[in-house]
Write a structure and sequence with these properties.
alpha/beta; Rossmann fold; 5 domains; eight-stranded mixed β-sheet; four-stranded parallel β-sheet; 22 helices; globular; binds FE2/S2 (inorganic) cluster
Length: 605
């Protein structure tokens, strides 16, 4: 911002009061251009009050001479064990900020714990994004370090920071160490779902099930598979928003603390450079993130989150960028649920920087990062340490495509299938539908011995989308009916407007848009309707005559929006469909002009 623009920005709010023009000119001539100065340079009653507020918080304002004030947004919470390592991260960040001459101010934000929040942490992702944006707007902060770890904390923090567009770096807390059962390392989520199926058909005992539960509860940290947290943290590295090599480091790694301290130093410099997310979250960096997602065999949730993140920059990535990049980038990371290993071994193989080295020909290496350097420069010193875990492009774990966007009359606005976690024998499959009206209906009937189902049946779950629950929980991996499991059937085609955990697997078609509760075609499907999946042709077709469709549409029960007060009510009214990232209508900019972050009036509160 040049001086003239800065003066306009300042004077526009008539603060400091015009009669104190000398004060204002002094500030301008001192080249002190930080937004926090609007709170602390005034010599009137509000300036005194603002300085007093920090003095009361233990900041020595007698020594204040215009240092950048850096927020640390911390999702640490005892309600969310995935994020409980963030307290030590925050302490290191503070040391770095202080060493670089900044003033750190840590603040808590809602912690979205995937395991305990119901109906789903996804319901609250946009709330976290709003909390971040509004906290950054309302307080005298010049930059921010964002601390997240569990799935939805990662996109929620980033979406808010992009809209606020203050200098920002995001850090994570690391994946948890694997527990062990019967001498085998356990993958978070992935092994839980597998052993649950074993318990349902009596392959393991209740005692063994209890033991697995204890082994899976193996301390702080995010899921140790390539679930949504590992995927999203990795994508932030690829996007230039997180230090390269950080996301996969174990939760108790000393290197993690050292990198966090360096990030504290860096954010102070970023404020001086005025380097903001809009300078490096671009079409190129988003393409790099989508490329990394395919190569990781990443979570399907990343499709929704990246669409929402890009939407905050008024950039469209769905479905075109996923289709184009997905068709040429294979999965080269041998990590569960697509591969065999866990995050500890992926990290030892070189982690995300190594993955990016093997992907160089598919990345835009000129993309800038939070460091101010290009991805190309940052990757110069990186290498793959184990080519069996992070493979060469010519020797992939799964060939491209690893994830496809499907279209057809059942999903006019798209649906997603994670091919890398699905069964090839079902890639071209036609079968009769068995429809569950909602999640409770599915739970009631799925294990009924009289259920009219065989391995050709396509299981359909309605009313599990963004508006339908609300929040679009991870209900898409419908269990295989017990009577089929007992016959050794491990996979079937399943379709819903829901999501599934990044640790899940199966031929599971997700994110059908528009959803049932918004009047999408999925809501009209009935038992024994024929549905065709064709992955090769990216097609999901519902075989229904025009007359029958017209009849069902006419007789459709009137869609009554659930009138809910409070945040769920706001969510149902404002949430966009999965193909638009499930952001809120009023948070997504409609033009580049909407990207301007409105500064608050700084005067008496
Ligand atoms: Fe928190 Fe998986 S449940 S990261």
């Amino acid at each position: 911002m040049d001086l003239a623009a800065y003066e306009k920005w300042w004077v526009g709010y008539d603060y400091p009061p015009k009669k104190q023009g000398a004060d204002r000119l002094l500030i301008l001539s001192m080249e002190k251009k930080l937004r926090s100065h609007r709170w602390f340079y005034g010599i009137n009653e509000t300036g005194l009050q603002h300085k007093g507020a920090l003095r009361s918080a233990g900041i020595n304002m007698d020594k204040y001479s215009g240092q950048p004030i850096i927020g640390i947004a911390n999702t640490w919470s005892e309600l969310n064990s995935c994020n409980m390592s963030l307290r030590s991260v925050s302490e290191e960040v503070k040391k770095g900020i202080l060493e670089a001459g900044g003033i750190p101010l840590e603040f808590p934000v809602i912690s979205l714990g995937e395991e305990l929040m119901k109906p789903t942490a996804m319901l609250y992702r946009n709330l976290l994004a709003m909390e971040i944006e509004e906290t950054l707007r309302a307080y005298p902060l010049d930059g921010v370090i964002l601390l997240g770890n569990c799935d939805k904390t990662i996109p929620g923090l980033l979406m808010g920071a992009i809209s606020a567009n203050l200098p920002a770096i995001q850090l994570n807390g690391g994946p948890k160490k694997p527990g062990v059962f019967n001498g085998k390392k356990l993958g978070s989520g992935t092994d839980l779902w597998k052993y649950w199926d074993d318990l349902r058909i009596g392959k393991i005992s209740q005692d063994e099930w209890e033991e697995i539960g204890k082994s899976l509860s193996c301390g702080f940290g995010s899921c140790n598979t390539m679930g949504t947290a590992s995927t999203m943290n990795g994508l932030l590295e690829a996007m230039g928003m997180m230090p390269l090599g950080l996301s996969t480091l174990p939760v108790d790694s000393p290197e993690r603390l050292a990198i966090s301290k360096d990030a504290g130093k860096r954010i102070v410099t970023m404020v001086k450079e005025d380097l903001k997310p809009s300078d490096f979250i671009t079409s190129s960096s988003l393409d790099n993130a989508i490329t990394a997602c395919m190569a990781l065999g990443g979570s399907t949730n990343a499709v929704i989150h990246l669409t929402a993140i890009a939407g905050r920059r008024n950039i469209s990535v769905y479905p075109e960028r996923f289709e184009e990049i997905g068709s040429r980038v294979p999965c080269i990371a041998d990590v569960q649920p697509t591969g065999k290993k866990l995050m500890d071994e992926f990290n030892d193989a070189g982690g995300i920087p190594a993955l990016l080295c093997n992907l160089k020909d598919h990345l835009d290496l000129t993309a800038k990062t939070y460091t101010g350097e290009t991805l190309k420069n940052l990757l110069k010193s990186q290498k793959v340490k184990n080519q069996t875990i992070i493979r060469a492009m010519v020797d992939p774990v799964i060939k491209a495509p690893t994830l496809v966007v499907l279209h057809g009359n059942l999903a006019p606005d798209g649906a997603v299938l994670k091919v890398s976690a699905a069964s090839p024998h079902l890639f071209s499959h036609t079968g009769p539908a068995l429809v569950f009206k909602n999640y409770a209906d599915m739970l009631d009937r799925i294990d009924d011995p009289l259920l009219d189902v065989d391995e050709d049946t396509i299981l359909v779950l309605q009313n599990a989308g963004p508006k339908g629950v609300p929040g679009m929980p991870e209900w898409g991996m419908i269990p295989i009916p017990k009577k089929l499991q007992e016959k050794g059937i491990c996979d079937m085609v399943r379709i819903s407007d829901s999501r599934m955990s990044g640790t899940s697997f199966g031929t599971v078609i997700l994110h059908v848009a528009p959803e049932s509760a918004a009047g999408g075609p999925l809501s009209l499907v009935q038992d024994n309707d024929i549905i065709e999946l064709n992955v090769q042709e990216r097609k999901i077709e519902w075989k229904i005559s025009a007359e029958e469709l017209e009849k069902r549409t006419k007789n459709r029960p009137v869609l009554q929006e659930k009138i809910l007060r409070g945040y769920p009510g706001l969510y149902i009214r404002e949430v966009l469909q999965a193909n638009q990232g499930c952001d809120f209508r009023f948070l997504k900019p409609e033009s580049d002009e909407d990207l301007i972050f409105i500064q608050p009036v700084v005067g008496r509160s």
